[in-house]
Amino acid sequence: MHALLPPDLYDTFVATCARAPRWFNMITEQLQEVLALEIPAQDDPVESEKSVSRMTLRQVLMTGLEDVISFGKEFTGFEQHTDGTVTAHFADGSSATGDLLVGADGAGSRVRKQYLPQARMEDTGIIAIAGKLPITEESAALVPPRVFQGISMVQAPKGYFCILHVMEFKWDRSGKIKNGIGGSDAELIKVWPGLQFDNTRDYINWGFSASADKFPADVMERSGADLARLVAEMTPDWHPNLRRLFELTDPSTCFPVNIKTSVPLDPWPASNVTLIGDAIHTMTPGRGVGANTALRDAVLLCARIIDVAEGRLELVDAVGRYEAKMITYGFDAVLKSRQQMTDEDPIHKPVIGRIMLALMRTAMRVTNHVRPLRERMARSMLQYRGAGRDNADFVLPARSESSGRRLNVSRRAGGVCCSRDFTVSAKEAAGCRAYASAG
Ligand SMILES: Cc1cc2nc3c(=O)[nH]c(=O)nc-3n(C[C@H](O)[C@H](O)[C@H](O)COP(=O)(O)OP(=O)(O)OC[C@H]3O[C@@H](n4cnc5c(N)ncnc54)[C@H](O)[C@@H]3O)c2cc1C
Questions:
Q1: Which fold has domain 1-64+125-260?
Q2: Is any ligand 1 atom within 6 A of the Cβ of residue 288?
Q3: pLDDT by residue (tens digit) across 184-224?
Q4: Of 72, 209, 306, 388, which has the fewest beta carbons less than 10 angstroms from its beta carbon?
Q5: Fold identical between 1-64+125-260 and 65-120+263-439?
């Protein structure tokens, strides 16, 4: 993000994050602490651990690109022409022609389905239900202080799992900047046009998951209050406070996810069509690095596009170099994320699962009481979450328009970016970021 965003927008991104988590907790379904790793406070706005609301992040990423993003355009297919250009077609009958098509259209990518029909997605056999509830006096009092101050994992019998993440922002429920925050943050948020469209307010986010056989067959068709009720019904022996969190959930925020993963692919010949993010390497949320990896793609692809713009590389060579690197780290993350979220894990089996849970809890409790072990575990977790940044890969041109030919950013829609000429101005290069997670 730091490499891709103009500096003032990066500051806005940091200012609009929720307060950084202080604790990473493992707890039982009875709210008992098994392990609590303290996340060291980081003043550095780049290195610090960040909790970002998806909706707010999209608003930040779209800031300054209002004139180049087209909404409501549904990509249906593309055509590659002999003159080296590519045309993207949309459901409304319109089309856009350019030099490069970047499919950033997520896990169900139509660009991928047409371009790489050999690419396969697999069910992991895990289903998750997610929901949010506003932070109120009642909901805040339902969780222990360290859980309120951090990210917590409930690991329970039957392979049941629930993540809890408390998100507190710098503006209040009416959108007014809260008192007692640093002056520069307040100023940044006040002038940020995204705030007027952002409906994010303080909330507790939860995500409950289990192997698919534990859910009713129609779970993927259910919605809203029905889903929150289902989670409460599946957890009758959980602590009443956790069950109350499920009950207090805003039904409109509840949705089921059938957790899928991509199957790593052999390299393919490069062309003027490429893919970034979930469109090529959908991964389970097991490690929480899907969006991070999409952003890494954006940094790398942007750097190669600038190489083309500045005459150092031919377009197809640049795409090939991007893909060679992306395939390696992208599918590595896919495989590691899969290991952490699959119904093949013995934790989901009846007897062995119970034994495994007991062993895991014992090992974590020991770690919790032995400081060097605890610190080593905290370091290792923070390392993989922040791993593989390509910071030094390129420097964005200054904010003013560059003198070269312009990247045609007007020809973009939804999760698909299509451009004709390949020299970028600063604003346009920054535009590449929008496709990493805003689509
Ligand atoms: C429950 C859960 C929790 C997660 N938690 C984390 C986490 O903590 N950290 C993390 O890094 N990652 C996390 N992820 C992963 C993360 O959400 C994804 O990796 C990330 O959203 C991928 O971004 P993307 O831009 O590639 O795809 P998406 O975010 O899916 O965006 C694709 C865009 O393309 C658009 N689109 C799709 N088809 C078309 C079409 N035909 N025409 C036009 N537009 C189209 C969509 O509307 C969308 O806007 C989580 C995922 C899940 C399911």
A1: FAD/NAD(P)-binding domain (3.50.50)
A2: yes
A3: 777 788 788 887 777 788 999 999 999 999 999 999 999 99
A4: 72
A5: yes
